[in-house]
Write a structure and sequence with these properties.
Immunoglobulin-like; globular; five-stranded mixed beta sheet; five-stranded antiparallel beta sheet; mainly beta; disordered C terminus
């Protein structure tokens, strides 16, 4: 069992992940046991809340993971072609402690929406 649990997943900008547009995600754990100590040893991925399967088409920008303090990290995530719309849990593995934690529905989820398609206007001659 992991030494901490995810207690909050938030998108401070309030946005859903759409197409290739990156969205900031914040994850908070408790209790404070120094679990977020080095981004080099964190592996972040996402699990479909309905099927509980990994989603390979949601990608975290490796160079944009920030440790805010020992209980909170922020990172940018984007959906690649092939991502399915829906709700996703965050899974984080800390390779230093050899522990993995997963958010649940009570902690918050990441929403992935289909990219909005704009219609082309026809010109009248």
């Amino acid at each position: 069992m992991a030494r901490v649990d995810i207690v909050r997943v938030d998108t401070p900008e309030g946005n859903a992940v759409r197409g290739g547009d990156p969205v900031t995600v914040s994850v908070t754990v408790a209790p404070d046991r120094g679990w977020f100590n080095d981004t080099e040893y964190l592996v972040i991925d996402f699990i479909d809340a309905g099927t509980l399967k990994s989603e390979p088409y949601l990608v975290v920008f490796d160079n944009d993971v920030t440790i805010e303090d020992t209980t909170t990290i922020t990172f940018k995530v984007k959906a690649q072609d092939g991502a399915s719309p829906g709700e996703y849990y965050v899974r984080i593995k800390n390779e230093t402690f050899e522990e993995t934690i997963v958010s649940g529905s009570e902690d918050g989820t990441i929403t992935v929406s289909l990219k909005l398609v704009t219609s082309k206007q026809k010109s009248c001659d």
